[in-house]
Design a protein that fits this description.
- There is one protein chain.
- This protein has about 425 residues and is α/β, with parallel strands linked by helices.
- The protein has 2 domains: about 20-35 and about 285-405, Aspartate Aminotransferase, domain 1, CATH 3.90.1150; about 50-275, Type I PLP-dependent aspartate aminotransferase-like (Major domain) (Aspartate Aminotransferase, domain 2), CATH 3.40.640.10.
- The chain is built from 16 helices and 17 strands.
- It has a 7-stranded mixed beta sheet, sandwiched between helices. Strands 13-14-17-16 form a 4-stranded antiparallel beta sheet.
- β5, α6 and β6 form a beta-alpha-beta unit.
- It is globular, with a radius of gyration of 22 Å.
- It starts with a helix and ends in a 17-residue tail after the last helix.
- Bound molecules: D-serine.
- D-serine binds near residues 32, 95, 123 and 173.
Length: about 425
């Protein structure tokens, strides 16, 4: 039987089918992407998309909230439990909005924020010059030590003492090493700043206990819900009780109107999945796969920023290969290996044509790849790099990638056992 979508809009149906085929027939290494479970997908496409729910449970501006109030409460409770936080706001539409809401909750326009420079691995909303966060606030950026490829906490402290930010931001979008949130918390205290921590990339590792949590050391923790956490596209804020009202008001009515209830519902489901031993095993495997991929890449003569990885991602510094990141990313895409070109700390090349390539393992781990497959991916990347201008070799690698993918079908219907050990 043809589905409603197939009947009503064959053009979009066909395009969705093509995207499904692309996702299943390629090795997806963008570290901020994943595959969600059937349960999360179902919640995302549920009737909750039809409901407006401005406000918070028990304090809404529309009637008909008998169910939405219960769902949002469940999502909040699950978020508080898995992150061990006093308060959770599960309404931000995205990580960018969540970050802006965190700043708006704590400081005034034109106050100073200090975060990691975008070209060193920070996020746009950590105060980068083209982001509104640098227009609404005065922004100071700290950088990575280009010798070690790591954070230099002494330099961050010196910069904080010089500029006295009102908010010190920890967290990154392209940093392959463990972040010491406790030191960030100490530095913030020393200079009288609030500490906002953005764990969008590593939230799943934090929940699984593989990366230390910033919750005890930060005033507000911001995250997306769709990267290592493996939920739908969305954002979330966690904070101490003392900031709860300010955070809630900053999200609604400060920045947003009605929450996207279908997304919020799917976030609740993803948080239940994250609260299982299977998710902990998944998160551990993400890191094992990243380490296996990184080690093999090093054997093939690739330079990695900081020499490796502690988490789910790595950054290849391609300068010794003489190939710009964009050229390699495009060749790999033709070979069905999907990555993103990225700046590396100290890059002299422009962000639109930088010297690095960013790779991550959350999605391949969801589809069941383990260390041997991660090593095989390194071999594919090596072959494409060595034959960057030989289209026949790139095509050959693409065929081998497809064969590997066919042995690990996309888990579009994977089911995580529920917390009672049963099946959802
Ligand atoms: N820019 C996204 C990423 O891919 O890391 C985060 O917003």
């Amino acid at each position: 039987m043809r589905t409603a979508l197939e009947q009503y809009d064959p053009q979009i149906y066909e395009l969705i089918r093509q995207e499904e085929a692309r996702q299943s027939g390629s090795i997806r290494l963008i570290p901020s992407e994943n595959y969600v479970s059937r349960a999360v997908m179902m919640a995302t496409s549920s009737c909750l998309t039809n409901k407006y729910a401005e406000g918070y449970p028990g304090k809404r501006y529309y009637e008909g909230q008998q169910v939405t109030d219960l769902i949002e409460k469940v999502a909040q409770d699950r978020a508080k439990k898995v992150f061990k936080a006093d308060h959770a706001n599960v309404q931000p539409y995205s990580g960018s909005v969540a970050n802006l809401a965190a700043y708006a909750a704590l400081i005034q326009p034109h106050d100073t924020i200090m975060g990691m420079s975008l070209v060193h691995g920070g996020h746009l909303t950590h105060g980068w010059k083209v982001s509104l966060t640098s227009k609404f606030f005065n922004s100071v950026s700290y950088e990575i030590n280009t010798e070690t490829g790591r954070l230099d906490y002494d330099k961050i402290r010196d910069l904080a003492k010089k500029h006295h930010p009102k908010i010190l931001i920890s967290g990154a979008t392209a940093y392959p090493r463990t972040i010491d949130f406790e030191i960030f918390g100490q530095i913030a205290k020393e200079v009288g700043a609030y500490h906002v921590s953005d764990i969008a990339h590593i939230a799943g590792l934090v929940v699984a206990g593989i990366h230390k949590s910033p919750v005890p050391y930060a005033d507000i923790v911001s995250t997306t819900t769709h990267k290592t956490l493996r939920g739908p596209r969305g954002g979330m804020l966690l904070c101490r009780a003392e900031h709860a009202d300010k955070v809630d008001r900053a999200v609604f009515p400060g920045l947003q109107g009605g929450p996207h209830m279908h997304t919020l519902t799917a976030i609740a489901v993803a948080l239940a999945e994250a609260d299982t031993p299977e998710f902990v095993a998944y998160a551990k495997q993400i890191v094992k796969n990243a380490k296996a991929l990184a080690e093999k890449l090093l054997e093939y003569g690739f330079n990695l920023v900081s020499g490796g990885t502690d988490n789910h991602l790595m950054l290849i510094d391609l300068r010794n290969k003489g190939i710009p990141g964009k050229k390699l990313a495009k060749a790999l895409d033709r070979a069905r290996i999907v990555t993103n070109y990225n700046t590396i700390p100290g890059d002299t090349a422009p962000p639109f044509n930088p010297s690095g390539l960013r790779l991550g393992t959350p999605a391949i781990t969801t589809r069941g790849f383990k260390e041997p497959e991660a090593q095989q991916i390194a071999a594919f990347i090596h072959r494409v790099t060595e034959n960057i201008d030989k289209e026949s070799v790139i095509e050959e690698v693409g065929k081998e990638v497809l064969l590997l993918c066919s042995q690990f079908p996309v888990p579009e219907h994977f089911i995580i056992p529920n917390r009672n050990g049963g099946r959802q």
